[in-house]
Amino acid sequence: MVRAAILPAVGAPLEIREIVLPDPGPGQVRVRLAAAGVCHSDLSLTNGTMRVPVPAVLGHEGAGTVIAVGEGVTHVAPGDDVVLNWSPSCGECHHCSIGEVWLCAKALTGVGAVYAQDAGGTPLHPGLNVAAFAEETVVAANCVLPAPAGIPLAEAALLGCAVLTGYGAVHHSARVRAGESVAVFGVGGVGLAALQAARIAGAGPVVAVDVSPAKEELARAAGATEFVLASDATAKEIRGFTGGQGADVAVECVGRAESIRAAWESTRRGGRTTVVGIGGKEQQVTFHALEMFHFARTLTGCVYGNSDPARDLPVLAEHVRAGRLDLGSMVTDRITLDGIPGAFDAMLAGKGGRSLIVF
User: Fold this and answer.
1) Which helix (H) or strand (E) covers residue 138, if one does?
2) Which of 41-45, 96-100, 339-343 has the lowest mean pLDDT?
3) How far apart are CA 230 and CA 228, in angstroms?
4) Which residues contact 175 (CB under 8 A, 6 or more apart)?
């Protein structure tokens, strides 16, 4: 048996318990986790903003070492280090056929499966496919990718969600060009990755926006040239840093109606806003028809950074090895499984960057 963080029901606190994992079946891989990041999406699963079958083992951003493989698995072997991919593409649906693998229609079909049971025999679901809040997990073979060489395995866990999402939002969705101005709303794990991506793209100025003044140091270390405390005057302040025009690009990493609206308002005429944050159905954003015409801005949703993990992981790894992308600087707390509730509390309070569970 292995220890895991179980969500027994929506709205209930996580329970750290022992679970029983089966041997990997055909097309499956068993992984011993080295580390797992605590993402805001995990918090959204606990409160019902996003829904999965329960009881479930959460955690979707992780890396570890293969300890066993099932029949037919050939791309990894026991002893290999891997990064977990919570959103594997099927390669067959319409979106996969046109290259939009991040919108795969079958990416989350695995969440409905029973992958393990607790010590009392209760069936458990694998959260967002990979159940990374556990010492070990069993996943479908297409949920593991070889870990890039030369990167500490614990830090490589961040590549599985925060970095793919933040980097992809800047490079794939917003398509930031050198010399463009960028505003990033929300300086959590994804926001820190987006700030680094904007710096890598050669953007400037790069403005970070957050509700917490304590985030300024983190933001500037990641590449922000300016820092703004979120308020009713946020858009005006950003225009002040951009010659009165507004930012070319805004990346919203919060998922709240007022933040999305502020991000849109902070861009210039013809500017681009990419929404990465996941909000609930109650977060209604409104625009009137005349402003849509007059400002000619675009507002775009972004899933998983519009990323293809198989394509993008080697690119990100090269940025890390070259010193352009600093994974360690995104981690503000290294915790154990028992520290997950505290990490959730910190996110709700707007504190810190990424909390990393180190096994």
Assistant:
1) strand 136-140
2) 41-45
3) 6
4) 272
Task: Over range 283-289, report the average pLDDT.
Answer: 93
Contact 176, 251 (CB under 8 A): no
Residue 350: pLDDT band (50, 70, 90) is: confident
Among 221, 212, 20, CA closest to 124: 20
Relative to beta strand 15-20, strand 116-118 is: antiparallel
* pLDDT, position 126: 95
Side by side, the strands of the sheet bearing 123-124 are 56-57, 2-7, 15-20, 116-118, 123-124
Quick check: 133 and 340 in contact, CB under 8 A?
yes
Mean pLDDT of the chain: 95
How far apart, in Å, are the Cα atoms of 98 and each of 94, 102, 111, 172?
7, 11, 24, 15
Q: Are 142 and 109 in contact (CB under 8 A)?
A: no
pTM of the model: 0.94
What does the alpha-carbon distance between residue 143 and residue 148 come to, in Å, rounded to a whole number?
Answer: 15
Q: How far is CA 244 from CA 191, 231, 266, 275, in A?
A: 24, 18, 10, 23
Nearest to 86 by CA among 171, 4, 32, 145: 145
Interatomic CA distance for residues 61 and 123, integer angstroms = 22
State how far the Cα of 39 lies from the Cα of 193, in Å rounded to an integer. Answer: 13
The answer to whether 5 touches 14, Cβ cutoff 8 Å, is yes
Region class of 45: left (phi > 0), else alpha (psi between -120 and 50), else beta: alpha
- Strand 81-84 with 144-146, pairing: antiparallel
Contacts with 71 (C-beta within 8 Å, 6 or more apart), sequence order: 25, 26, 27
